[in-house]
Amino acid sequence: MNDRMYSIIGILIPFIGTSLGSLFVFFMKKNMSEKFKKLTIGFASGVMIAASVWSLILPSVEMAENQKTIAWIPATVGIALGVIFLLVINKLADKIENKKDGKKFNMLMFSVTLHNIPEGCGLIRRW
User: Fold this and answer.
1) Closest Cα to residue 97, out of 106, 87, 89?
2) Closest to 55 in 3D by CA, of 127, 115, 11, 119
3) CB 71 within 8 A of CB 61
4) What would you report as the CA-atom Rg of the chain, rounded to the nearest whole angstrom?
5) Distance from first CA to last CA of the chain, Å, rounded?
6) 35-61 average pLDDT score
7) What's the pTM value of the predicted model, to 2 decimals?
8) Is CB count within 10 Å lower at the N or C end of the chain?
9) To the nearest 5 percent, what fractions of the chain are helix, strand and coil?
10) How far is CA 4 from CA 7, 10, 115, in A?
């Protein structure tokens, strides 16, 4: 397979996953029970935590071990910086949300961008 095919597959897999996840909301938004909502949010949280641990935290620890430094420090500092970053972003989001012009569009673009920042940072370890 050539690089173009890998790129297409790499784009399609997240697209299909996001589409499948959004089908619940699209088709069931009016009849979805609170229990099912909690279950789907919990499932999504579990998947994201597992992805963070296996794709970001553990490789960070492994890279630090290979560089002969204290293994847990880079991951801990990165997590702390991420928490601080999210707190700052949350304050900015509150300010954006209070504006009436383009509120939904702004929040959509803001949340998609915010969601993709850590994924882009995760690519660093591949180079």
Assistant:
1) 106
2) 119
3) yes
4) 18
5) 21
6) 87
7) 0.62
8) C
9) 85, 0, 15
10) 5, 10, 25
Instruction: Give Cα 65 distance to the centre of its chain.
Output: 26
Q: Among 89, 92, 98, which residue's Cα sits nearest to residue 118?
A: 89
The span from the CA of 68 to the CA of 64, in Å, is 6
User: Is a pLDDT exceeding 80 seen at residue 52?
Assistant: yes
Task: For residue 18, give the amino acid letter.
Answer: T
DSSP 68: T
What tokens appear for 58 in the block? 């553990």
- What b/e sequence results for 64-84 when a residue is b if at least 16 CB atoms lie within 10 Å of its CB, and e otherwise? beeeeeebeebbeeeeeeeee
CB of 61 closer than 8 Å to CB of 75: yes
Report residue 56 as tokens.
């970001």
What's the chain's average pLDDT?
80
Write out the H or E segment, with its range, that includes residue 55.
Answer: none
C-alpha neighbours within 13 Å on the C-beta side of residue 122: 13
Residue type, 44: A
Residue (of 53, 54, 60) closest to 74 by Cα position: 60
Q: Can you read off the two tokens belonging to residue 111?
A: 């949340």
